[in-house]
Write a structure and sequence with these properties.
By secondary structure, this protein is an all-alpha fold. It is elongated, with a radius of gyration of 20 Å. It has five helices and no strands. It is 78% helix and 0% strand. The chain has one domain. Keywords: Membrane, Transmembrane, Transmembrane helix.
Length: 158
């Protein structure tokens, strides 16, 4: 159980790190057509998605260590509410950061930009923890006896 959670966490952390590095938008002098604005916005989201995946992966690895040490999962049921709350928090934080940081950079308000980055980073960390709790619950939820493979039923009955 802990190994599965650790492997999924490691895969998410590696994928997130790669997205953070390879998802950096290219430097441009000035957008020339309206499509450039949209492509710049989408490219600006890639490192944020990478940061989210790396955060979820890191917290999931921490939960795997906790499962290995204690012998039980911190969450025993997969909750859709955790997923929805985590995803909503992360999406709002990402969109706020993508929109407000560029605005405050253009009006030369560095302190406000740093405040926005700090608040959105905190919101993304909480959202990543909620998503990691959901993922850990999903990976460690025990199947009902009727849905387990035939060989597992024999060992469960003993």
């Amino acid at each position: 159980m802990a190994r599965t959670v650790a492997v999924v966490g490691l895969a998410l952390a590696v994928l997130g790190s790669l997205l953070m590095v390879w998802g950096q938008p290219p430097l441009r002098v000035a957008p020339t057509v309206p499509v450039d604005y949209l492509s710049n916005f989408v490219l600006a989201l890639l490192p944020m998605v990478g940061r989210l995946l790396a955060s979820v992966g890191a917290v999931t690895i921490a939960f795997a260590v906790l499962i290995k040490v204690t012998g039980r999962s911190p969450i025993t049921v997969g909750s859709k509410l955790l997923f929805v709350a985590g995803l909503a928090l992360v999406l709002v934080a990402m969109l706020a950061e993508a929109g407000l940081v560029s605005y405050f950079m253009n009006v030369d308000r560095i302190r406000m930009m740093l405040a926005v980055v700090s608040v959105t980073a905190l919101a993304q960390a909480v959202g990543a923890a909620l998503l990691s709790l959901w993922l850990t619950g999903l990976l460690t939820t025990q199947l009902p006896l009727a849905r387990q493979p035939v060989g597992a039923r024999d060992t469960a009955a003993r």
